[in-house]
Amino acid sequence: MTFRDLLFWPKLGFSMAVRGIGNHLYVFLNILSP
User: Fold this and answer.
1) Which of 4, 22, 28, 34 gives 20 to 30 Å between its CA and that of 11?
2) How many domains does the chain have?
3) How far is residue 6 from each of residues 20, 26, 27, measured CA to CA in Å?
């Protein structure tokens, strides 16, 4: 998703960005947890 897509679809782009960041944090914490 490009920056222009975020401008055209603010609600969709925001939800996808939050979901992507959440997934990366979840995987990152799982890797760090013993």
Assistant:
1) 28
2) 1
3) 14, 23, 24
Over residues 6-15, the mean pLDDT reads 73
Domain that holds residue 28: 3-32
Rounded to whole angstroms, how far apart are CA atoms 28 and 25?
Answer: 5
The Cα 15–Cα 32 span in angstroms is 26
C-alpha neighbours within 13 Å on the C-beta side of residue 1: 13
Q: Is the pTM of this model over 0.90?
A: no
Residue 30 has a pLDDT of 92
| CA–CA dist 10, 25 (Å, integer) | 22
